Amino acid sequence: MKRFCWPLIVAALLAGCAGEKGILDRGDYQVDVRRQAQAAYPRVKVLVIHYTADDFDSSLATLTDRNVSSHYLIPAIPPEKGGKPVIWQLVPERDLAWHAGISYWRGATRINDTSVGIELENRGWRNVAGQKHFAPFSAPQIAVLAKLARDIIQRYQINPANVVAHSDVAPQRKDDPGPLFPWRQLAAQGIGAWPNSDRVAFYLAGRAPYEPVDEAELLTLLHRYGYEVKPDLTDAQRKRVITAFQMHFRPARYDGLADAETEAIAQALLEKYGQG
Question: Among the three residues 187, 215, 231, which one is the final residue of a domain in this structure?
Answer without folding.
Answer: 187
